[in-house]
Please model this.
Amino acid sequence: MVYLTDYSPKALVTAIENNAVGFYINQANAAHTHLDETDSMIRIMSDIPFPIGNAITRARFAGMPEEIQEAVENALNPFKAHNIPMAWIIDSASAPTNLGSYLEEAGLYRAPRVPGMAAPIESLTAPAPIDPAVTVERVTDEATMQLWVDVFEEVFGIPTWAADFWLNTLVDLGLTGDLPLRHYVALLDGQVVGSSSLLLWDGVAGIYNVATLHDVRERGIGTASTIIPLRDAYAEDYRVGVLQSSQMAMSLYRKLGFKEYCRFGAYVWMGTRPEEH
Model:
């Protein structure tokens, strides 16, 4: 493993984006999930009719407008043929630069852009004391993974049937040992109230799926769910943490020491209702 030690903006943008792509590539190792990786795109498809398991990323199309339109349609065909909702992720190197307009023409809608952030792990500091009743532990068994998914489902409003798929996918990828993707639960007085995931990929440590139950916020749970997994990564010689932030969490991550280096776009297709066929 070559660990990132270059903190220049260009290197950090590449690391943030590569780690995000790695999240999808790693997910494709689960059963009932298929990966198509070519020079022009990466496509991940699963059996679940929900964007959580279906995406296109790293699209690099070139040519005349009609050629790009055809490439977009061909990329989307497997999803549309099976009426599987999906997300198309746009990063700094997506091509052409107006790719979003082709996606909108194809029936996708634009989701809000989210910042890609990075920080040296050793510099991260909690902006306020963490409640001493809060602990964070790595998930190592299916029962605890279910509790993790329960938090994820409630906080992000995921349908139960999609959350069940997510549980099966994460369990299938593995929960113990030297894995690139690891999951953590935050506990308050012994009860699971928060979740996060850590992806060790392309020389940096990525934080994903940070969630805290609404009625226990403002007690340092999100802070602990971010910092403690990154400290584990630091113990394995990773020196840079990366993440994508919601607008609501931006203030927290900035206080921890993260800085914004890029923005991710997303275009979503939610499938068609039966009467639309």
Summary: The mean pLDDT is 94.
